[in-house]
Structures are given as C-alpha cells and as structure tokens.
Amino acid sequence: MPIIILVNPQMGENIGAVARVMGNFALSELRIVFPRDGWPNEKAVAMAAGAEAILSDAKIYASTREAIADLEIVFATTIRGRDMVKPVVTAREAVSQFTSKTGILFGPERSGLSNDDTALSSAILSIPTNPAFSSLNLAQAVAICCYEWFQLQEKPAADKERQLAEKQEVLAMITHLETALETREFFKVPEMKERMRRNIENIFTRNQLTSQEVQTLRGIIACLEK
Amino acid sequence: MPIIILVNPQMGENIGAVARVMGNFALSELRIVFPRDGWPNEKAVAMAAGAEAILSDAKIYASTREAIADLEIVFATTIRGRDMVKPVVTAREAVSQFTSKTGILFGPERSGLSNDDTALSSAILSIPTNPAFSSLNLAQAVAICCYEWFQLQEKPAADKERQLAEKQEVLAMITHLETALETREFFKVPEMKERMRRNIENIFTRNQLTSQEVQTLRGIIACLEK
Predict the structure, then answer these.
(1) Are A77 and A123 within 8 A, CB to CB?
(2) Interchain pair B220, A25: CB under 8 A
(3) How far is CA B24 from the centre of its chain?
(4) Taking the CA of residue A214 as centre, how many other CA atoms within 13 Å lie in the half-sphere pointing to its CB?
C-alpha cells in the first residue's frame, strides 16, 4: 500500500479531502511535511467526512528527507522536472511498481514540488492531462493515484473468475507452435528467427489468455499440423 | 466527449472543482439541474481556478428529463440502484462506450441520485471503491470519470505508432484460419461449432493486433496447413 506524502500543503481543506479519498480507495498512511497552517488543522477535519482516523494517524515531519527516510521507492508527482534525468511514468504505470515501502510525494498547491524534493525521488509520476490546463487540484491528483492503485488491487478477483492461464501453459503452447513451425522451416532466414519468435511470443502473451483459450489454440495447432 | 450533468448540486465549491477537473481532462460541456444555491454561484467561480469558461457556458435545467433530452446514452453514477435491472459498468469500462451524445449523471452530495433519475439512465456507472468507506466527494467522482475518458483519448496516438491492423485485416485472417480448420474437420460437433468460432474470434480480436502481427499469423497458418 503506497504512502501519501504531502509536502508543505497550504490549505487544510485539501488535506482533509486527501484523507477522505485515501479512505475511499483503502489507503491509510498519510505523512505531512511542514504543513503551512500547523497541525492539527480544523479545516482538514471538517473535509475528511469520515476519514478522521487517517488524519489523526498522520505523521508530521520537518523535512522531506526525514519523511522518506525509511522508504524503498519514492515517486514525485510533478509536471516539471522533465529535464531531470529520472524515469517518467504515468499513474497507471507507476502503481504496478509499488512495493510495501513506496511513497508518493505531492508538492504545495501553488508551486508544486521543488526541484530539491523531486531530486530525492526514484522516478517522476506524471498524470496525463490537458496540456492547455494541466494544473490539478492537490486532492484530485492524490485521488487519481489512489484510484489507480485500488483498481490494480481489484483486478485479481475479476481475472480469477475468467481462470486465466498460468504463464507455463501459455509458454508450453508457444513452444508447441514454434516446434511445429521449425519442422516446416518457417524460420528460414537465421537472422530473422529471433525477431519472428519475439513477435509470436508478443502476440500471445500481451493478451491475458484463459486456460480454455490456450486449449483452443493447442487444438488449432494440432489440427493444422496434421 | 461526454457531457457532465450535475443533478441538484448543493455546494458551489464542488461545482467549481468539477469545472476545473473537466478542464484538466479536456472536457467542456457541463449541465446543471436545479442547483441548490441558484446560478451563477460565486463559490463555484472561486474554485474553478482557470476553468471559469466551463461555468459560464454551463446550461441550467429545471429537471433531469430536460437535461438529457437530446442525448443518446446516459450513465447514472450511483452505488445504489444495484437492484434495478440495468447494466452496471465500471468507469473504465464505460468510457469505451461513450458516443458524442453521452451524458453522465451525478447526484447531490448528501443523497446521491434518486431512483427516479437513475431510472432515466441507460446504465449504472460504478466507481470501484473501498466498500467500508465508499462515498466519494462529488468532484472526485467526476474527476475519475473525466480521467478515464482522457486516458482513452491518449491511447490512439500510441496505438497509431504501432500501426494497428484494420478490423477487415483481422477478420480476413480469422476467415483464413477457420477455412483451414473447416477443411481439416476441426468443427466436428455441429453444436459446438458456433462456440468454438466465437472463442477463436475472441482470442484474436480482444487483443489490438498490429498489421505486422496479422501478417505473422497468416504466415503461421499458411505454413502449418502446408
């Protein structure tokens, strides 16, 4: 579960809205670096709408450095910093990289994260927005990160119903196909062989095939090679 | 581009936050049914943070019925209404069904959409949330719908680079495969034929194949049926 880290947040209302949306998407750990209006903050409590526990459990830090000291991976949400030599990932891409010790840094409302804070991060997390009007409200930016993380947690349940094939079933099917093609001299040009192989593997692994579908494909290969 | 329809919104701040996040994700058409505090609303303008044009262009209606009269598809965002006989889709699933005349209804902050308003919709749009704390702030719910729509718009650019196959290429490849299978009596059991056919079509159409990949698959079929 990612840890949300607000750096120098200005408005209590936004901190409260952040806590609420964290609760909506089953996140619980909030860290706050030097909140402008001190702590605790009544306006934050008023906006939390049921997520007061997240606020009262929030840890307050004097610096970003201290707030991230125990973490493995830190993402910086920013639309600047593109000139920094850091990987840039979308929110959707980032959530699949989260470990149990991952933090996401969000800067103050007016200015966003400073270059110094961004420099402390492992990667830039960028939410794709309208380039002509890209400045998201702080709580909205947090909402989208939390939402993406929660969707990823939801997925396994839906996938289980479809009985997804295990990787080994898919790879055995691909081996079956490649052996049949090899026998028929499909890979005539040696230089092309590896690329063709990758193409084939890509076609069948990109898609999340079910066990039933892998069986169907094996049936097709067996039928055609008769 | 979907139309955001707020039914009886209570707080001006939320209406302003909705306008801002619509702008962030390149949406522009806002409709409001009977706003509690009248219209225009100063608090809405204060929260729009640059999206004032969306507010001033917003159309005001006296009833939900009038607000949706010219639309083809209407989604109702609600966590209730599950007992209604309506399809329920997630935000991520819904956005791929949007036409140019699609509206998304959002109910008032306290109570959500009424059953009467939900009954007017084509389907329920449900945002998966923590079941123990599922009540999203109005502007956050709008944000996630707008975000999902915008992510879908971003996709074609990336896909174009990959030169996606046209549907007719994919269908011709499937016909090629099915003819080869037919010749080899793959569809032995007549009752199973249609289901097998659907399985095959599903495997190759779910995936967005590139032209290159369709060529590879045709090469494979031709090679195996030799």
Answers:
(1) no
(2) no
(3) 18
(4) 22
pLDDT above 90: percentage of residues in chain A: 64
Closest Cβ opposite residue B17 in set A20, A24, A137: A137
ipTM of the complex: 0.72
Weakest-pLDDT range from A13-17, A44-48, B195-199: B195-199
| pTM exceeds 0.90 | no
Distance CA A65, CA B157 (A): 38
CB A19 within 8 A of CB A45: no
- For residue B184, give how far its alpha carbon lies from the nearest alpha carbon of chain A (Å): 7
Residue pLDDT, tens place only, B120-169: 999 999 999 999 999 999 999 999 999 999 999 876 554 545 677 887 88
Q: Do A200 and B209 touch (CB under 8 A)?
A: no
